[in-house]
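Section 5.1 Outputs to date
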Amino acid sequence: MKRRSAMLTMAAVLMGVSAMAQKTKMVPAAVASALKAKYPQATKITWEKEKGNFEANWGGKSGEDMAATFTPTGEFVEQVEAIEPTALPAPAQAYIKAHYAGKKVSEAGKVTHATGKTTYEAEIKKLEVVFDDKGNFMQASKEND
């Protein structure tokens, strides 16, 4: 019985590793190489496809404290660093309080675009609310699932 249990455990581990390898295989070599060059410290990376691009997530307890997006050819698009909602600029916090009273910011991030431009994002009830570098409202849109 112990041997069968050990075999089942090993099979489950191998299936998990295989599934993870398949997910990583979907990432073009140019993208994986660009990530490694720009973020050599990144470990335990998970990948997802986003609007035709590839997003790498890593870091922190959730494994998503940092994200970087690259085009299929490996061109850097942006990085998103998770921040506490209280770290959003004061005007952004005031806007949220005024326009989304009683609703909680479930996630917040500081976005650095390839151009060097900085914006902030706040996720509120399936909405992504975007602010400029000073915290001024720019746009709100439904999140992609």
